[in-house]
Amino acid sequence: MDDKNDKIRLGISSCLLGAQVRYDGGHQLDRFLRDVLGDYVEYVPVCPEVEVGLPIPRDTLRLVENAEQQVRLVFSRSGEDITERMEGWARERVRQLEKEQLDGFVFKAKSPSSGMERVKLYDRNGVPKKVGVGVFARHFMEHFPLLPVEEDGRLNDPRLRENFITAIFVLKRWRQLLAAGFGLGRLVEFHTRHKLLIMAHSPQHYRQMGKLVAAGKDFSLTELRENYLAELVAALRLKTTVKKQVNVMQHILGYFKRRLAADEKQEVLELMEHYRQGLVPLIVPLTLLNHFVRKYDQAYLRQQYYLNPHPKELKLLNQI
């Protein structure tokens, strides 16, 4: 489906790849990210605390709210404030990352520099609340608002993992489209192949994006590119659900209404119902639909990324 020689470009917290850069000299190796997803990804590692010049090992950092209700990054023991130092480095680092053509980023959860949400923020009385955002993560998300981002902890959820990985594969294909030269014809092809995948995330965005592409000649190429990408990213951020997946599979079944024998149609409907009831994972009905696509040589469906959104070796559809 995708050429491994043109890999996804993914930023990542260095410790998740096994780099011993943590405050205690350790790491937080994630074997799925390194050994499984790593076959399809070229990682761009970032460790804010080491890159800003802090030693290994080092005192822990924390986010603290001061009397002026400003969030500060300070050392836990000494109270030394390095907020400006980290802020300045982060602003420069995200500008450097523009050159990397990233398709997304995986942050280290709970980190005062890299956590994307629910980082402990201590009030003036030393009481923590999980409402903070890591300094670097905040700068990255503000600078690259359209890129998919996730944390290592959240990726343990099969649905969040599948959603994120689907998004980064789509963004990789979008980057390839831009590299080939953006034009209305290429956009129509891209949109056509992603229609059902978009529908699985958001039927509303599916309709809006269809109208946008149909009226493509009414926009400049720049407007069309920017508007389409904004809609695409918004759609991908909405999680798929069992109900939406069943709706798409019923839509697919409509392409075979004059081809399937009665027993074949009944088998598909039974597997879809088993999926709806949580008795089988999504891969089961999709495998049968893919079989019928090949058997009856359904050219339109054969090109749909919905039926093969990412490499089977990742086994993501086996878990949702």
Automatic annotation (TrEMBL):
InterPro entries per the UniProt record, alphabetical: 2-thiour_desulf, DUF1722, UCP037004
Ranges of residues in domain DUF1722: 195-311
Coiled-coil parts of chain: none
Domain of life: Bacteria
Signal peptide coordinates: none
One Pfam family cited in the UniProt record for this chain: DUF1722
Name of the protein in its database record: DUF523 and DUF1722 domain-containing protein
Organism (species): Pelovirga terrestris
